[in-house]
Specification:
It is a single-pass type II membrane protein. Keywords: Glycoprotein, Glycosyltransferase, Membrane, Transferase, Transmembrane, Transmembrane helix. InterPro entries: BC10-like (IPR044174), Glyco_trans_14 (IPR003406). GO terms for molecular function: glycosyltransferase activity. With 363 residues, the chain is α/β, with parallel strands linked by helices. It has one domain: Spore Coat Polysaccharide Biosynthesis Protein SpsA, Chain A (Alpha-Beta Complex). It contains 12 helices and 10 strands. β1, α3 and β2 form a beta-alpha-beta unit. The longest helix has 22 residues.
C-alpha cells in the first residue's frame, strides 16, 4: 500500500486550517456566565406580581395618588400616609460603613422617607447600630458582577418598597459606597418641584440614558449575535448609570416588565465579560423605550470615571475629602445639582463626619 508524501499531508493540513477557523465557532457552543437560578426567578416573579397588583388597586381615600389600597398594611406593618415619601434603596455586598453619615442625613425627616437594604446573603454583614438601618434588611439573593443578578436585586428592592408603603413616590437606588452631598430637604424639593413639561406634568425619573457611548456596540453584543432581537434592536439600546431615582410609575413599570427582562437576563459570553454590565443597560433601555419624555436622562449621583480601573470608578481616599471636594461634586451638567456621589473608601467616614454639619448638610 502506498503512503502519501509528507509534503502532500502538510499541504492538506494547511488547507484545512481556514475551515477549522471558520467552522469551530459555529460547531462549539459559546461559553457563558452563570444564569439566574430558576427558583430565584420564580420567587421574584411572585413578589413582582404582588407589587403590581397592589399598585393597581383603587386609591380612594388615600390622598397619596399612589394607586394602592388605603387600608392595606405594608410588608413592614405600616399604614400608608398621604405625604409623598422617598424610598432609599441600598444595594450592598459589604458593611454599610457610611450609615452614621446617612443617619445625620435622615434625621428629622423620617416621616418623609423609608429605607430598604438588599444585602448579598454571602456577605458577612455587620448591621449598623443606627436606628434608621435597624430592621431594614430585606430578603436578598446572591449577586455578582457581569450578571443580571444586580438587575434582579434592584427590582426586588423596588417591589418591596412598592408593597411596603403606598406613600413611596420616589425610589433612590444607592450603593454602600454612596454618600449624600446635600441635605434631605434639597433632594425633596428637587423631586417634588421637578415636573415633565408635557401636558400631564408628571414627575420625572432621574436616570442617565446614553445612546452614543463608545462601547455601545460591544455592550449590545455581549450576549451574542441577534440575542437581543427582535425586542431590542441596536438603535433602541441604551446605557447609563447603575444608580438612579425613579418616579413611582416607573418603579411599577420596571417590576411589571417581562418582555425586555427575558432578553437582558440572558447570560453574557465569557469572552465579552468586560462589556457585560446588565444593570447599566436594562433600566435605561426599558425607560427610554416606554417613557423617554418622563426621564431627565441624567443622574443625581456623581461618579468620577477619570481613572477607572477594572470597571470601577475613582475611589476617594481620606486625604481627598474636603469642603471643596463636596462643593465640586455637587456641580452638574443637568438642571439640578448632584445629590449623591460615589465611590468613597470606608476610611473616609471620619473626615466626612467632620464636615457633615458644616458642609454636607448645609443647603
Amino acid at each position: 500500500m502506498a503512503y502519501a508524501s509528507p509534503y502532500v499531508l502538510s499541504f492538506l493540513l494547511l488547507l484545512s486550517m481556514p475551515a477549522v477557523y471558520y467552522l469551530a465557532p459555529r460547531l462549539l457552543m459559546p461559553k457563558t456566565l452563570p444564569a439566574i437560578p430558576d427558583a430565584d426567578e420564580t420567587e421574584d416573579l411572585a413578589l413582582f406580581r404582588r407589587a403590581v397588583l397592589l399598585s393597581a388597586a383603587p386609591a380612594a381615600g388615600s390622598g397619596s395618588g399612589s394607586g394602592a389600597a388605603p387600608s392595606s398594611f405594608g410588608v413592614f406593618g405600616r399604614r400608608p400616609q398621604a405625604r409623598p415619601k422617598v424610598a432609599f434603596l441600598f444595594l450592598t455586598n459589604s458593611d454599610l460603613v457610611f450609615a452614621p453619615l446617612w443617619e445625620k442625613f435622615f434625621a428629622g425627616h423620617h416621616g418623609l422617607l423609608n429605607l430598604y437594604v438588599h444585602a448579598d446573603p454571602a456577605a458577612n454583614l455587620t448591621l449598623p447600630p443606627t436606628p434608621s438601618f435597624r430592621g431594614r434588611i430585606i430578603r436578598g439573593k446572591a449577586t455578582a458582577r457581569a450578571s443580571a443578578t444586580l438587575i434582579s436585586a434592584a427590582r426586588r428592592l423596588l417591589a418591596t418598597a412598592l408593597l411596603d408603603d403606598p406613600a413611596n413616590q420616589f425610589f433612590a437606588l444607592l450603593s454602600q459606597s454612596c454618600v449624600p452631598l446635600l441635605p434631605f430637604p434639597a433632594l425633596y424639593r428637587t423631586l417634588l418641584t421637578d415636573n415633565n413639561a408635557g401636558r400631564h406634568r408628571r414627575h420625572r425619573s432621574f436616570i442617565e440614558i446614553l445612546d452614543s457611548e463608545p462601547t455601545l456596540h460591544a455592550r449590545y453584543y455581549a450576549r451574542g449575535d441577534n440575542v437581543m432581537l427582535p425586542e431590542v434592536p441596536f438603535d433602541r439600546f441604551r446605557v447609563g448609570s447603575q444608580f438612579f431615582v425613579l418616579a413611582r410609575r416607573h418603579a411599577v413599570m420596571v417590576v411589571r416588565d417581562r418582555r425586555l427582562w427575558n432578553k437582558f437576563k440572558a447570560p453574557c459570553l465569557v469572552k465579552e465579560k468586560d462589556s457585560c454590565y446588565p444593570e447599566e443597560h436594562y433600566f435605561p433601555t426599558l425607560l427610554d423605550m416606554q417613557d423617554p419624555d418622563g426621564c431627565t436622562k441624567y443622574t443625581l449621583t456623581r461618579v468620577n470615571w477619570t481613572d477607572a480601573v477594572g470597571g470601577h470608578p475613582h475611589t476617594y481616599q481620606p486625604e481627598e475629602v474636603s469642603g471643596d471636594l463636596i462643593r465640586e461634586l455637587r456641580k452638574s451638567n443637568g438642571t439640578y445639582s448632584h445629590m449623591f456621589a460615589r465611590k468613597f473608601a470606608p476610611e473616609t467616614l471620619a473626615p466626612l463626619m467632620e464636615i457633615a454639619d458644616s458642609v454636607i448638610l448645609r443647603d
